[in-house]
Write a structure and sequence with these properties.
CATH superfamily: Ribonuclease Z/Hydroxyacylglutathione hydrolase-like
CATH topology: Metallo-beta-lactamase, Chain A
Order of helices and strands: HEEEHEHHEHHEEEEEEHEEHH
Strand content: 15-25%
Number of helices: 9
Shape: globular
Distance between the termini: 31 Å
Low-confidence stretches: 1-5, 8-55
Largest sheet: 6 strands, mixed
CATH class: Alpha Beta
Number of domains: 1
Mean pLDDT: 84
Helix content: 10-25%
Strand order of the largest sheet: 6-7-8-9-12-13
């Protein structure tokens, strides 16, 4: 949440304040690897559908981003192109609308994947599992204390339907998660939260990074067990080696590529890190 659980760090000001809260989420509302826009327009009528990518039929996966909750967290529905078996990544809320989208695309929900335990990313997980029976994979065990707080946090921040859950599988660095006839790689990227993981599809050059990295920013680390240096190390040693051409979905705001962030991000661009002592 920007200003609450997810958030980003604002660009360093001239006065050197690196931890000021970021502004409102960017306008990106829908990224389409493949799928007709009218379906999402009907299911999520609040989305701005002007921003989209052309379908890429040769890729082994398809995906749509459907921002959910008042914080516009980038929940993603991703599926195997051969089997139409799908995973929902970070179902923070609005579960009935997610289910409508899955039905309208003709998908079968096979997995629920969680990057980290914050309310806006995981608040709808238990409801989605109860509605579909799909197993929950992720995050890393170190985020269990955040999951335990989801219900109380939801009551505090105006999301009373949010509930905690127990993953069917806690994820570790180096794990792989399958989806239909394809698979994603898992990388443990602590810093924003201690149990944060990201999902990477090597062939599609596609990553879902939660609140680790954003276009022009990085995740907040002023939460319990957050750690700024760990976050920087995760970005530079786990994300950057995957390749500059990798397109990523952040937890909030527009997509970007690792290469673009290495050039322009005011926190982790190569030139910025090279100037630090």
């Amino acid at each position: 949440m920007r200003g609450k659980f997810g958030g980003t760090l604002a660009a360093p000001s001239r006065g050197g304040n690196r931890r000021r809260g970021a502004g409102p989420p960017s306008a990106l509302a829908l990224f389409v690897i493949s799928a007709p826009r009218p379906i999402l327009a009907a299911v999520f009528p609040h989305l701005d559908l002007r921003v989209s990518a052309a379908p890429q039929p040769d890729l082994p996966i398809r995906a749509v981003i459907a921002p959910v909750t008042p914080l516009q967290q980038n929940c993603t529905i991703v599926w195997c192109a051969k089997t139409n078996k799908a995973a929902v990544i970070d179902p923070g809320g609005e579960v009935p609308r997610l289910l409508d989208a899955i039905r309208q695309y003709g998908l079968s929900l096979e997995k629920i994947w969680i990057t980290h335990g914050h309310l806006d990313h995981a608040g709808g997980t238990q409801a989605l599992k109860e509605a579909t029976g799909a197993p929950i994979e992720g995050p890393h065990l170190e985020d269990s204390f955040w999951i335990d707080q989801i219900e109380s946090s939801g009551a505090k921040w105006g999301m009373p339907d949010a509930r905690g859950f127990t993953p069917d599988r806690w994820l570790q660095d180096g794990d792989r998660v399958t989806l239909g006839e394809t698979e994603f790689e898992v990388y443990h990227c602590p810093g924003h939260t201690p149990g944060h993981v990201i999902f990477f599809h090597r062939e599609a050059r596609f990553a879902q990074v939660g609140d680790v990295l954003f276009q022009g920013s990085i995740g907040r680390t002023d939460f319990p067990r957050g750690d700024h240096q760990s976050l920087i190390e995760a970005i530079t040693t786990k994300l950057w080696p995957l390749g500059d051409d990798v397109r990523f979905v952040p937890g909030h705001g527009p997509m970007s590529t690792f290469g673009q962030e290495r050039k322009t991000n005011p926190f982790v661009a190569d030139r910025v890190l090279a100037e630090q002592p």
